[in-house]
Amino acid sequence: MLNTVKVRIEIPISTITMLIACTVHAINSHMNHSIMPYAISNGVELSDQDLKDPTSQSNRQDKNVRKRQAKFHLNGAKRYFREYCENTSIHGFKYLAENRTVCERIIWFLLISLSIAACGFWIIRIYYKYVTSPVIVSFATKESPLHAIPFPAVTVCPMTKVRKSVFNFTRVVYDIMDEKNITDEEQLYGQYLSLVCYYGQKYFRPNNTFNADDFYEKIDQMKLNISEYTDGCQFLVDADVSCQKMFQPIILDESVCYTFNMLDRTDIFQDKVFHFKNYHVTAKSPHWDIDKGYTNVTDAFKTYPYNAYLAGYGNGLQITFKQPASELDYMCLQSLQGFSVALHAPHVLPQLNKQFFQVSFGDSVMAAVQPKMMKTSQKVRKYHPDTRECYFTNEKYLTYFKQYTPSNCRLECYTNYTLEMCKCVQFFMPRNKTTPICGNGQRKCIKKVEFLLKVWQLKYTANQKSDTYFCDCKPSCVDITYMVEHSQSIWNYKELHLARRRKPVNESYLYARLTIFFKQESFLTSERNELYGPTDFLANFGGLLGLFTGFSFLSLAEIIYFLSVRICCNFRLYNIWTGPKN
Domain 406-475: which topology? Predict the structure, then answer.
């Protein structure tokens, strides 16, 4: 039997207490970690991720610092804006800064917003008008005298295209209708005349092009000489002068015509344009320019183009027409017999089939002229032609003309289209030496070009804005037109001749008279000027700002001051851009 040995181990109470405390602490630590995995460091909870990343704490602190700084600057900006509102001279802003009720500040905010919006609306409208319509046409402040402009150029075209004594157009047409033989020369004359006669063209063989030299020679031979269909001319004086000394022959769309007071061909056409013999030659140096007016005038009665100086009957041009009745060819004529007359500026090439008035045999026609002049200020020259809607004389280059005019531009456009589509030009169009002349065989092509140009022009005008122009033929910035008020009455020349000369007039001649004179001693000029120059626009701009907001130049200076100088000074004085709180 074994004896049990009892061993007594004595453990101090303090030690047991320590072990229990450690065990409890370990259990509590384990439970706390499993329930809420956070730690406390310096009074701030840290997650496991924070414990693993030691830089997250500093990032979080930086973010908080940035937020505080942003809030500080925002409050400073509010305070700075309040300070501006309290001191600015712009109306209404001080009420936004006052320590008043929210309702009052909202009302003033709405009033200021509406005022600024209305001001902006009207400023935009003025700016749009300044950009789109900077030029205005108005009347001059005073009337211009007659001596400032030339007497109108007068171009006369007889409706009789050929002398019967040279070529009887009616007889030849009748021979062809009766199937009689005609000579080759008659066939050629008939082909040439079919370009200017109104009937009988279909009876002659078609020819696509003509020999230019021979064509002009034959037309020159068939023409009526001005000495053969005039009985005398008067200009400014009562004495009759030979019309041949005053008028020069010129080839136009109505065949051979005669012109008075027109510039020489070298002053109108480019040097490369072909001319026939001595046609359209004045042999006088011009003292007048459409842009500058009369210059280098030493003798008022020797200026060219001529000037009337005075208005009224007796201070103009009078032409007495006299033509043998036997020269009338009714096959080539229209229903009326007489002369087509055009009044135009001396530097403009007229087109008689576009604008003219008629002087019939047996009539006395008086044409009272009222000039209409357009000037343009040099201030307008800086604008683009599309903006001012006009060209100065030497601004737009024309191939055939030295000076730009709308009629010259349209004729050149017509010439270019005809040359492109028909490979030739009409006899009256400007051309160089090698360009062929369209014959009677090209009549359909020419009619087609005329029709297409009209259709294109109508479509172009209808589809585009009102300030666009076909062929880019804008009006001239400086221009003269002559408005004509003409009256006509029966001229009893037979009774007059019998009373003065005590013998009857020769019944084989037909008579007519044309008198041209200025209606008034002066005329009113139109001018293109700036509608809104820079000064006008600035005045309107500032006026609207002052009306709606009380804004002025000093108000702008205040804004610049608060955005620049005051901020810099605040930095120097208080080390902060917003300045002190109080």
Answer: Helix Hairpins (1.10.287)
